[in-house]
Specification:
The chain crosses the membrane at residues 59-81, 87-107, 119-139, 159-184, 196-217, 229-254, 261-280, 292-312. This is RsiW-degrading membrane proteinase PrsW (M82 family). Residues 31-50 are annotated as: Disordered. Pfam families: PrsW-protease. The longest helix has 40 residues, at 290-329. The chain folds into two domains: 10-39 and 319-407, no CATH class; 56-286, no CATH class. It has 415 residues and is mostly helical. The chain is elongated, with a radius of gyration of 25 Å. The chain has 14 helices and no strands.
């Protein structure tokens, strides 16, 4: 049997930015990819060799980062409980899970082609729910101290707080989390869809904590908890997501273009994020019919945002298809495998078949690694090999080949 762990020429591209075609796949791999993997009789299990994990330095930074986020989040929890009481916070948190669940569903819909690493998404949520809220509270406390020392708030203090202070402070705080992820997981931050996903999770975390505060206050005061929940939880679960998505979108386009000026891209995205947030908060001071304003202004804005995301998702699928087709042309994939990998229905069908023959995890690994391979190739073409795209390509080709060898083993091969 061929030793696929030592198959030569896994790099497939030149040392510098790619301007030449991919190298042909080794003969034994071309022979195997002459037949596609997919639904067929029988089953046979095989192990897929995993790649090397992150280095010790990255692990240490991750541990320190999560520890710090945990402490900050604990402070926020203590702040909420001390101000509202444990019962109110529990009730409010249960209610806040509803809009959070809607956001999570939206993120899963957006992130269907290349799901982001769970640790990165966890960091994004904790940053939004903990660190960004802590920053907003700290800045607000400092501003309140300055205002009090100056003689107290003026007549326009409420408007300035809602339409100026909150948009600037909150979007900067949330955006910093997206920017940190841009720097920390650059090998997985490939384009605007990834930026929107990370921004949406950060914003969803921030909105979760903010909703606990609003719902808790309404519960303690015996006020209109039902109306507050309806407006914030059901009518506008994506409000913060839409604001902060502008930052993720800008950083995503910067990543696709080589990420040479990430701070500038952050600033470019921050401007519309603050503007959208200020427009949302400020309009409430001038609009008499909130529901009419919501239907005439906010709903169309949301529809436009969904349309933009849909176009970006379609573009992402096209990029995956184009890059994998290049590998198929030189023997690394069967054309039918490329068709399967660029179709959501094809992926579901392949996973369902693989589960039936006891290779569900292997097929999921094959799909995931093939998608990552397409993005590694895209990074090389875009001149981003300084973040290790060619090393990723070599490792991913090895893993894809190992997974296919398991899937195409005697008894599970199909024409």
């Amino acid at each position: 049997m061929t030793d696929y762990s030592r198959t030569p020429d896994y790099t497939a591209t030149g040392v510098h930015r790619v301007v030449s075609p991919l190298s042909d796949a080794p003969t034994e791999i071309r022979a195997e990819t002459a037949t596609s993997v997919g639904p067929g009789p029988g089953s046979r299990s095989a192990a897929v060799t995993r790649g090397r994990g992150p280095g010790a330095g990255r692990v240490l930074l991750a541990v320190l980062g999560f520890t710090l986020l945990g402490l900050v989040s604990l402070f926020v929890v203590v702040y909420l409980v001390s101000g509202l009481g444990a019962t109110s916070v529990i009730v409010a948190a249960i209610l806040a899970l509803v809009p959070l669940g809607i956001v999570v569903w939206g993120v899963r819909w957006i992130d269907r082609w290349e799901p982001e690493p769970r640790l990165a998404l966890t960091f994004a949520f904790l940053w939004g729910a903990g660190a960004s809220v802590f920053i907003a509270l700290a800045v607000d406390a400092e501003i309140q101290s300055i205002v009090a020392a100056a003689g107290g708030p003026g007549a326009s203090a409420e408007f300035l707080g809602a339409a100026v202070q909150a948009p600037i402070v909150e979007e900067v705080a949330k955006g910093l989390g997206v920017f940190i992820l841009f720097l920390a997981v650059r090998r997985r931050f490939d384009g605007p869809v990834d930026g929107i996903v990370y921004a949406a999770v950060v914003a969803g975390g921030f909105a979760f904590t903010e909703n606990i505060l609003y719902f808790g206050v309404a519960f303690v005061d015996g006020g209109a908890l039902g109306q507050t929940f309806f407006v914030r939880g059901l009518m506008s679960p994506f409000a913060h997501v839409m604001f902060t998505a502008a930052i993720g979108l800008a950083l995503g386009f910067a990543a696709r273009r080589g990420a040479r000026f990430p701070v500038f891209a952050f600033g470019v995205g921050l401007v519309p994020a603050i503007a959208l947030h200020a427009f949302w908060n400020g309009a409430l001071f001038f609009v008499g019919d909130f529901y009419g304003y919501y239907l005439l202004v906010q709903v169309p804005m949301f529809v436009i945002a969904v349309a933009i995301v849909s176009l970006l998702r379609r573009q992402e699928g096209r990029i995956i298809g184009e890059r994998l087709a290049e590998y198929a042309a030189v023997g690394w994939f069967h054309p039918q495998e490329v068709a399967m990998l660029t179709s959501k229905r094809g992926r579901r069908t392949a996973e369902r078949w693989a589960r039936g023959v006891g290779l569900g995890s292997t097929m999921r690994a094959f799909i995931r690694d093939a998608t990552l391979l397409a993005y590694a190739r895209q990074r090389i073409i875009g001149g981003r090999d300084q973040i290790g795209a060619q090393l990723d390509e070599a490792e991913l080709l090895r893993r894809v080949t190992s997974a296919r060898h398991a899937l195409a083993a005697p008894g599970v091969r199909t024409q």
